[in-house]
Design a protein that fits this description.
The protein has seven helices and six strands; from the N terminus they run ββαααβαβαβαβα. The protein is an alpha/beta fold. The protein folds into two domains: 149 residues, Ribosomal protein L4/L1 (Ribosomal Protein L4, Chain: A, 3-Layer(aba) Sandwich); 49 residues, no CATH class. α2 crosses α3. The chain is elongated, with a radius of gyration of 27 Å. Keywords: Ribonucleoprotein, Ribosomal protein, RNA-binding, rRNA-binding.
């Protein structure tokens, strides 16, 4: 089992914690990680793009000139794709880009992403994150104490004071143990997790 230091909000080590290899020590499956990221981005797409084909563009019902004898190339309609104002060839239509992954694949991808952060020493465990008031300045100080800039902060339960304190910090995103995903884990350089959140993740995914 990998052992990581547990830090307090001042950035000082207050203990150690063993991480379960079933979650934080798996073989990294890059294919599943890639699939999970593509799936999340695809599922977020609205798919509402639309352009008109030549059958949908208004006008162009009459043949612009006779077939032969004008010196022009033959034309059947002024709304053919080569004309200004004409329809679009193979025009995009509204569609659903989403696709599904199996539960086992999703879990394996998440474990792989978490394992990669532990292997890169980009996984920081904090004993707790608690603020008496909503204060962005205080949250920024805690991040400086932990020597962290671009970070995903995972909380066991959404503490309103912590979440709102981090809301105006553009390089930080907060998440709960139920909402963590592969895309966010990879997007942010460091994952900062409370000790309680680590225990919850190990219970759910081990």
């Amino acid at each position: 089992m990998a052992t990581v230091s547990v830090l307090n909000m001042e950035g000082k080590e207050v203990g150690t914690m063993e991480l379960n290899d079933a979650v934080f020590g798996v073989n990294v499956n890059e294919h599943l990680v890639h699939m999970a990221v593509v799936q999340q981005l695809a599922n977020n797409r609205q798919g509402t793009q639309k352009a008109k084909t030549r059958s949908e563009v208004r006008g162009g019902g009459r043949k612009p000139w006779r077939q032969k004898g004008t010196g022009h190339a033959r034309q059947g309609s002024t709304r053919a794709p080569q004309w200004t104002g004409g329809g679009v060839v193979f025009a995009p239509t509204p569609r659903d880009y989403s696709f599904k992954m199996n539960k086992k694949e999703k879990r394996a991808a998440l474990k792989s992403a978490l394992t990669s952060k532990v292997q890169e020493n980009k996984f920081i465990v904090v004993d707790e994150l608690k603020f008496d008031e909503i204060k962005t300045k205080k949250f920024v100080e805690v991040m400086k104490n932990l020597n962290v800039e671009k970070a995903l902060v995972v909380l066991n339960n959404n503490d309103v004071n912590v979440v709102k304190s981090a809301a105006n910090v553009p390089t930080v995103k907060t998440a709960s143990t139920e909402t963590i995903n592969v895309f966010d884990i990879l997007k942010y350089n460091t994952v900062v997790v409370t000790k309680a959140a680590v225990e919850t993740i190990q219970e759910v995914y081990a």
